[in-house]
């Protein structure tokens, strides 16, 4: 198994390929994970950048393209939005207003743009976005087919640490696995991947191409991705941003808190580490820490059956007589109206159906 890095176009990202030795009895899917930075606070420019990267991946023959967590809308790395226990600052409130303005409605016009891109370049697209639902934001992944159809979304169930200041919590109604011609496709976002019960739910839905958009560039992330690939018997595609300080608005408009001194413009604030891993735990492409890149591999789905001969976590290696999992997969709406006839009518959070 060899790793071949094609010469990048002038100023363009690196493209890597792995030749897996395809088996004609099962699909072979060329997949690409995008490692690139958001244009922060500028959603139209971010969408333009997304299309350039998507076009390049499609030109390389990719059938599936996965973008990082919060690529559209931005990951607010280093910000605390002026929040402390018992206090919020006016500057922090204004920062949230800007962040809210950069988010997108799902569905909405930006989703339509992304769908059109997927159809134009004939690829399945998995895109990390910040979803605006009224005045609550969600870290969300949206899915599109190669005909330009919007398939659905996954809202991050559990924001991590300070993310909870600005992101709401998803529910079990948006945990889809889509049965596509490429394979069964789904996504789990960043440290949700550390939730064993969520992983088990995804495995039980038969996920084969497990997308893991993230903002985690720690070395330990690679071990997490390899473990999931082996545990789930699935291909794992993790896409992270590569960002420098200059990719964010300048100080004092945007501050990286907790730093003893202001970062230099070229300081790396997220080093990437995007990676593609096979069901046997073999790294097929990446991890890449060198800059913006398109990282690609050919996925031989026949490998899934080979590895599940030994270990099928929700099949022959399960013990339902000892362990069981209950998943509440309906929308958890905050308000239910009761009519005079006794009929119930739910007042959903906009977009909360998962469609």
TrEMBL record:
Family matches, as InterPro entries: C-N_Hydrolase, C-N_Hydrolase_sf, Nitrilase/CN_hydratase_CS, Nitrilases_CHs
Enzyme Commission number: 3.5.5.4, 4.2.1.65
Active site as annotated: 69
Keyword line: Hydrolase
SUPFAM superfamilies: Carbon-nitrogen hydrolase
GO BP annotations listed: cyanide catabolic process; detoxification of nitrogen compound
Catalysed reaction, written as an equation: 3-cyano-L-alanine + 2 H2O = L-aspartate + NH4(+); L-asparagine = 3-cyano-L-alanine + H2O
Pfam families listed in its UniProt record: CN_hydrolase (PF00795)
GO molecular function: 3-cyanoalanine hydratase activity; cyanoalanine nitrilase activity; nitrile hydratase activity
Family membership noted in the UniProt record: Belongs to the carbon-nitrogen hydrolase superfamily. Nitrilase family.
Name under which the protein is recorded: 3-cyanoalanine hydratase
The species this protein was found in: Linum tenue
